[in-house]
Structures are given as structure tokens and as C-alpha cells.
Design a protein that fits this description.
Subcellular location: Cell inner membrane; Cell membrane
Order of helices and strands: HHHHHHHH
Radius of gyration: 21 Å
Function: Part of the ABC transporter complex GltIJKL involved in glutamate and aspartate uptake. Probably responsible for the translocation of the substrate across the membrane.
Largest sheet: none
InterPro entries: AA_ABC_transptr_permease_3TM, ArtM/GltK/GlnP/TcyL/YhdX-like, MetI-like, MetI-like_sf
Structural class: mainly alpha
Strand content: under 5%
Number of helices: 8
Main location: membrane
Shape: flat
Pfam families: BPD_transp_1 (PF00528)
Number of strands: 0
């Protein structure tokens, strides 16, 4: 037990890196995903096709590959040539990737609204129709898939070990290699379980709250 308690300090520091990436990604990816979804369902076909191609690309290639490309290959791309440090590279990759997934969730929610409501709102502009009529109705419908994707995000943060960031998984792995015991992995798993449990409770609360409004 004393050994387990000694692990809490270094693993907590790794968990802070994990949580930081999770929060920053969520703050950036959700509004970007919503913007992409609105462009995806817009009447401008060229824009919709462009966004559809972006979503196809980001969902069709591994997140780790995207992260490695942004960190290692992007600096050598002609004209662009942008170089990111390890954490910003992870944030960019995660935000762009998860924005594509969130965009599809938002798109499904928007298109689930009855067409009659769009016709009844012809006196309003497109932006007003979305802001006042459509978007307020989609939140209860998209909460379950948003919950799944958000919990997946917590677990996917472990991929940043390839950039040598000292996240929760890398911290646990370092201790395992040092002490020749798998106990740090078990403790790290408990950290992940606690984080996902808190998110699960939060989304369940939101689902029940919106269910009361719909009743």
C-alpha cells in the first residue's frame, strides 16, 4: 500500500498533462465541429463538399499518424513550413481530428429536426433559424454520442506518449521500467476510470435534465 501511495505523486503530474490536453481539445474541437457541421449542411455545395472531404480525411486516417505528421512532417511542407512544439502539436492534431467527429454528430442532430420547422421559419434568416430554433433542439439528441466521443477522447490522450510528453501513461510506463512491476499500470488505469466515471455521471445528469424539459 505504501508503494501505491508513492505512485500517486508522479502519476498525478502525468494526469494533469492528460487533463490539460483533454480540456483544451474539447474547448477547441466542439465549436469547430459545430462550425463544420453548419457548413456541411449549407446550401453552398462547393463548401459542403470541401468540408465533407476534410471529415473523410480526418476520420479515415489514424490520429497518431496525424499527430506525427503535424509534429515531424509539417515543418518541411513547402509554403506552410510551420513547426510546433510537442504539446501544441498534440493540441492541433487532437482538435482537428475530434472536430471532424463532433461535426458529424452535430450534422446528424441538425438533420434530425423536422423539415416543417425550417419551412415555418422562412421569415427568419438562416443564422436566426439555426440559433433560435434548430440548435436548441439538437442538444438532447446529440448528448449520447457526444458522451461516447468525449470519453473516447480521454482514452485517446494516451497516444501523446509518441511525442515524449509526460502524460499519465508515459509516467506509468517510466515507473514500470524503473521498478520492474506492473502496479503503476493498474494505478494509471484507476486514474482513467475515475476520469471517465466523472464524465459519465456528468452526461447522465445532462440527459436526465433535458429529459425533464422534454416531458
Amino acid at each position: 500500500m505504501e508503494y501505491v501511495l508513492s505512485l500517486l505523486g508522479p502519476l498525478s503530474q502525468g494526469a494533469l498533462v492528460t487533463l490539460k490536453l483533454f480540456v483544451v481539445t474539447l474547448v477547441l474541437a466542439v465549436p469547430l465541429g459545430l462550425a463544420l457541421a453548419l457548413m456541411r449542411v449549407s446550401r453552398f455545395r462547393a463548401l459542403a463538399r470541401l468540408v465533407n472531404g476534410y471529415i473523410w480525411l480526418m476520420r479515415g486516417t489514424p490520429l497518431m499518424l496525424q499527430m506525427l505528421f503535424i509534429y515531424f512532417a509539417l515543418p518541411f511542407v513547402p509554403v506552410i513550413g510551420v513547426r510546433f512544439d510537442d504539446f501544441p502539436a498534440a493540441v492541433v492534431a487532437f482538435s482537428l481530428n475530434y472536430a471532424a467527429y463532433f461535426a458529424e454528430i452535430f450534422r446528424a442532430g441538425i438533420q434530425s429536426i423536422d423539415r416543417g420547422q425550417y419551412e415555418g421559419a422562412k421569415v427568419l434568416s438562416y443564422g436566426q433559424t439555426m440559433r433560435r430554433i434548430v440548435l436548441p433542439q439538437i442538444w438532447p439528441r446529440i448528448l449520447p454520442p457526444m458522451s461516447n466521443e468525449t470519453i473516447t477522447l480521454v482514452k485517446d490522450t494516451s497516444l501523446i506518449y509518441v511525442l515524449a510528453l509526460n502524460d499519465l501513461l508515459r509516467a506509468a510506463r517510466g515507473i514500470v521500467q524503473r521498478d520492474f512491476t506492473t502496479t503503476p499500470f493498474i494505478v494509471a488505469a484507476c486514474f482513467y476510470l475515475v476520469m471517465t466515471l466523472v464524465l459519465t455521471w456528468g452526461f447522465q445528469y445532462l440527459e436526465k435534465r433535458y429529459a425533464k424539459y422534454d416531458a
